[in-house]
Specification:
10 strands; four-stranded antiparallel sheet; elongated; 65% strand; 103 residues; mainly beta
Length: 103
């Protein structure tokens, strides 16, 4: 059984036992969370699509870690104008493990 969930402005296709990094959510390490914005649930050939969310469907997950991604370097330059700008960014993330998908 798999589900398509929405969190942090992005959509993820998840199934039980999968690990993934999502946008940071305020939760402690080891805490069990419930993701209730489920867009669709599928098992084999059967697919249930919500409008916009599937009623009664939830995804349970456990928080494994909180961290920051690798640094992204941003460099802007205008040739012949003596303009250069350096900038860096590290996005926060929460690593979770999907425990169960229920519809």
């Amino acid at each position: 059984m798999y589900a398509v969930i929405k969190t942090g402005g992005k959509q993820y296709r998840v199934c039980a036992g999968q690990k993934l990094k999502i946008e940071q959510i305020p939760a402690d390490i080891g805490q069990e969370i419930s993701l209730d914005q489920v867009l669709s649930v599928g098992e084999g050939d059967a697919l249930k699509i919500g409008t916009p969310f599937v009623d009664g469907a939830t995804v349970r997950a456990t928080v494994l870690a909180q961290g920051r991604h690798d640094k992204i370097r941003i460099f802007k330059m205008r040739r012949r104008k003596h303009y250069q700008k350096h900038q860096g960014h590290r996005q926060n993330y929460t690593e979770i493990r999907i425990d169960a998908v229920s519809a």
